[in-house]
Amino acid sequence: MNAVETVRSADPEQQNAGQRLYWAVADCWTIVRRDLTHLVKQPSIIAWQLGFPIVSVLLFVYVFGSAMDVGEGVDYKDYAMPGMFAMTMAFGFMNTAMAVVVDKERGVTDRFRSMPMAPSAVVTGRGVSDVLHAALDLAVMAVIALVIGWRSDGSLLSTLWAFALLLLLRFSLIWIGVLLGLLAKNQESAGNLFAVAFPFGMVSSVFTPPSVMPDWLGTVAMWNPVSATANAIRELYGNPLPTGGSWIEEHSELMAVVWPLVLTAIFLPLAVRKFQNLSK
Amino acid sequence: MFAPPPDQCSVVAEGLRKTYGDKHALDGLDLAVPRGTVFGLLGPNGAGKTTAVRALSTLVRLDSGRATVGGYDVRRDPRAVRRRIGLTGQHAAVDEIITARQNLEMFGRLFHLGAAHARRRASELLDQFGLSEAADKQPQGFSGGMRRRLDLASSMILAPEVLFLDEPTTGLDPRGRSEVWDAVRGLTRQGTTVVLTTHYLDEADKLSDRIAVIDQGRNVTEDTPAGLKRAIGGDRIEVVAAEARDLPVVTAAVARVAMQGAEPETDAAELRVHAPVSAGVPALTEVARGLQDEGVMVADIGLRRPTLDEVFLALTGSRTQPPAAAQDMDRTQHAEVTA
């Protein structure tokens, strides 16, 4: 026996499967609480992260809006707002990557890894916080959209399903964010990810229908997962959806589910493996 | 070499090897750290100190070799090891945005103390590390020393059997360093075994019971701070003349007591003459009396042990200059260490 050890951990030396599951959930929640506390302590985080989408809304709707022709008699803001929701979700992986790289750089990740907590909680905690965070982002964006004059003409159920699809897209991108955050050397290099995020968000149906783009670019834009979600929610909100009539555009709701599942299936295991390989 | 029985050791490592590409970060390192002592790992940058600490604290998988911490194998039973260690790495690993108290409570929950116990423990640690007044402030406004103390407190949630400190004072100002040293001394009084890596020689000297000098992932030597200094040479007598013209007389006086075959070394710019002696105190008295008889004034006269800087350079060769050889090795501090 050691005289030093006066403070005792509540869980036993050897955990059974039930205890392991309990602590995996409890530890995940502890990490989520930490991120929620960040929002309470620094609500300005939301403003910073939504700065780009909000400025984009104002620019595209009020500055370029009158020059944007997305179809006969279509109010551009009704086309652009759902696109903006999708773009906000698409850029969200940057927030994930940044949070991961900050913890890695400051040694917080190593501290967690040297503790007897459930190792999975570091990753799952990130995932849950980011989905909650994204829901808050969406709520703020929706209020701005309503103020500008955007409306959902879909049923309540369709509207909620549309928001769920947006969160599903964000969820699938968490794992790309975790992977990139673990790969990034430092915060500066994670900041450079914007060079990837920008075309990923923009070469899509977010601001303009792919049918008006050059053929090759239009094809890339159509198959962009962001387009699938943007088009699917336009349909669900009953907002205008000018398309070129291609297969991918006709099946946007299906693809708004398939794409995130595919991305998750690829990047969740890669992110987990990268996390485990921190000990290499 | 001193080898304590394994059952009295908190950390035992045998033949640790870890390779990154073609670089051998650890190349057969052995360690035995007696329970309740402070063990210094001293070496130049890239010597393998950090890799050793990361391997012992389960953050890095070893290529080969065996290590137990608190009696548990780091590879076979990492969770048991994690329940018995605290780790303070090179960065203050605390959340900058949530308060100091919230940090400690979060880590307490993650150590599975339960909410109420975590809160209680956070208050205790804030007290113990002198952070009560800053408890509800965000660490982003803290001084380096305060941040480090919060970091140390976070490592002490479970009152660990072994605390790993990887360069705990790098980047701190002298005040921050002494704050951290005081905190570490406080912990060792409570019986925690500390494994400390540092490239500050005075830090190893002041805090460690034993020091292992390592280079290129291998053991170079291991001893007490005093023993290391003895190994490299005994006492030296040192006289600083008051006037440059007295330098020859002083040199002659020192030469008379110098160890056989040793020539006094003279630093003309500082008017300093020094030489190794076999019996320190008689030599000191003799030189002092001799110079007094000749009517020569001296600015300073004393005995000094070689600094760890000198030991370090002698052991690892001039190839690996310590990056931050600390210069504040005055005689008083030596007396403390060697007493």
From TrEMBL, chain A:
It is a multi-pass membrane protein. PROSITE patterns: ABC_TM2. It comes from the Bacteria. The chain crosses the membrane at residues 45-64, 84-102, 123-148, 160-183, 190-207, 254-272. InterPro entries: ABC2_TM (IPR013525), ABC2_TM_bact-type (IPR047817), ABC_2_transport (IPR000412), Nod_factor_ABC_transporter (IPR051784). Keywords: Antibiotic resistance, Cell membrane, Membrane, Transmembrane, Transmembrane helix, Transport. It holds the Pfam family ABC2_membrane. Residues 44-278 form the ABC transmembrane type-2 domain. It is found in: Cell membrane; Membrane. Belongs to the ABC-2 integral membrane protein family. This is Transport permease protein. It comes from Streptomyces smyrnaeus.
From TrEMBL, chain B:
Its main location: membrane. Keywords: Antibiotic resistance, ATP-binding, Cell membrane, Membrane, Nucleotide-binding, Translocase, Transport. Residues 319-339 are annotated as: Disordered. Residues 11-241 form the ABC transporter domain. The keyword Phosphoprotein does not apply. Residues 328-339 have a biased composition (Basic and acidic residues). It comes from the Bacteria. It is found in: Cell membrane. InterPro entries: AAA+_ATPase (IPR003593), ABC_transporter-like_ATP-bd (IPR003439), ABC_transporter-like_CS (IPR017871), ABC_transporter_ATP-binding (IPR050763), DrrA (IPR005894), P-loop_NTPase (IPR027417). GO terms for molecular function: ATP binding. The keyword Membrane applies. It is a peripheral membrane protein. Belongs to the ABC transporter superfamily. Drug exporter-1 (DrugE1) (TC 3.A.1.105) family. This is ATP-binding cassette domain-containing protein.
